[in-house]
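Narrative of activities, Objective 1.

The group set out to show that a structural description can be obtained from nothing but a protein's sequence at a throughput compatible with the screening campaign. Below is one input-output pair from the validation batch, recorded exactly as produced.
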Amino acid sequence: MNVPANLKYTKDHEWIRIEGNEAYVGITDFAQSELGEIVFVDINTVGETLAREEVFGTVEAVKAVSDLFLPAGGEILEQNSALDSQPELVNQDPYGEGWMIRIALKDASQIDTLLDADAYSELIR
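Output recorded for this entry:
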């Protein structure tokens, strides 16, 4: 499984990449492989401010529909519009082109409580 060292992770299999006061969020390589072929990503929270661990959307695969949980609180600034027509990007490139949302962080200290790559790797073994 691909677990990049520059990201932080949740036990619910979301990742977050910090860029200044903003961050990108998506699901992990493990999550997309467990879900199987992703056919739809539904995010209708753009413009909302959500708390950590609140649901910001859902991802639908051939096998199941799963809630997406916010790793850190903040305002949802943007969703990846490419996923509207190409949800398979989540399967093909979960940490790059398959990102799901961009947020303005409310409290960057919440990042410190997330899993690093080593801890997440242990979780999915």
